[in-house]
Amino acid sequence: MTDLLDAAPPEPETKPKKKKTTRNVLFFFLGIVVIAALVGTAFVAKLANDFNSQTQKITNVFPKEESRPAPAVNGAKNILLLGSDSRGDAVDMAEQGAASDQRSDTMMWVHIPADRKNITMMSIMRDTWVDIPGHGEAKINAAMAFGGVPLVVETLEGLFKNRIDHVAIVDFEGFKAITDSLGGVTVPVTVPFTTSTHTFNAGPQLMNGDEALAFVRERYAFTDGDYQRVRNQQLFLKAVMGTVLTPATLTNPAKISDLVGNVSPYISVDKSLDAGTLGALALSLRDVRSSNVISFTLPNLGTGTSADGQSIVVKDDAAVLGISEALTNDSLVSYLAANGLG
After folding, report:
1. Residue 321 to residues 134, 171, 267, 318, 339: CA-CA distances in angstroms?
2. Using only C-alpha atoms, what is the Rg of the chain?
């Protein structure tokens, strides 16, 4: 993925704040296609066809099977969400494993347990210093540039010793399409800031597509850079969910059709993550409520400097090990509660 605003300044030594949100970007699409799992109509069939035909399919998404962890035997699922920006090389270069200027600046590991009672979303800071197979130590967002989606998956599976079942890439331009399809989204701005084109005052602000895109991209305006950008993206997604998951939207066929049609072109998914798979997964999650959706950032030891002079985020090896074991045991929620996360 591209560095969304080119070269980043050094990150301050600030711990990421914990955050709980009502839904995430994947659950937005699940919320749309869940209708397909519940209602058998020609209209719903059209929605599924629109999603399947307009989304890009990532044909080369996983590394060689012999290098991967075994699938979970209990039915738990792990989904990797990546945020992209269309201003860089074509995303298909990264999908095919080619080197490009794409960088996975927004990275989220979504864990869905076997009992389907909750959803846990782990954000991973883009400057986290890790071992990238075949390339040595580097910032984790460089994996996309080195070897595309397969290398990102291999890096994360190696870090957490657990298998990623699906991958979804969302172009930030899709945030603009979402917002305009909904007729605008009201976002509760917590930290006021100004970009070269927009001013965001504190408090509820009705945003159009252009404003929403500027809101989720900006990081230079903040003393803690990427940390506030991640919080703003979460605020925006929460506001989208508050707008989408209402009778006014879900019972409006024209609005739903526009939403699916306008947003699908900005989504890339692995070939097994089609409308049917999403609909079935959404149906299995029908009892999940906002209190069951937990968001946190992978703990780290603050910022530091690499041997070659880069400003980096130093990973917390003890936390990585604990999360790896919790993923394997399907006990991530218990681990988070015991360690004051989420």
Report:
1. 22, 31, 32, 5, 13
2. 19
- Strands 193-194, 199-200: pairing is antiparallel
Query: What 3 state SS string does the chain have?
Result: CCCECECCCCCCCCCCCCECCCCCHHHHHHHHHHHHHHCCCHHHHHHHHHHHHHCEEECCCCCCHHHCCCCCCCCCEEEEEEEECCCCCCHHHHHCCCCCCCCCCEEEEEEECCCCCCEEEEECCCCEEEEECCCEEEECCHHHHHHHHHHHHHHHHHHHCCCCCEEEEEECHHHHHHHHHCCCEEEEECCCEECCCCEECCEEEEECHHHHHHHHHCCCCCCCCHHHHHHHHHHHHHHHHHHHCCHHHHCCHHHHHHHHHHHHHHEEEECCCCHHHHHHHHHHCCCCCHHHEEEEECCEEEEEECCCCCEEEEECHHHHHHHHHHHHHCCHHHHHHHCCCC
Question: Which candidate, 318, 51, 68, 45, places its Cα nearest to that of 174?
Answer: 51
pTM (predicted TM-score): 0.77
Q: pLDDT by residue (tens digit) across 1-38?
A: 433 333 344 444 444 444 444 444 555 555 544 444 44
Sole residue written with tokens 């657990």: 162
Place of tokens 């927009």: 198
Residue 192 corresponds to which tokens in the numbers above? 């006021």
For the chain, report the end-to-end CA distance as a whole number of angstroms: 27
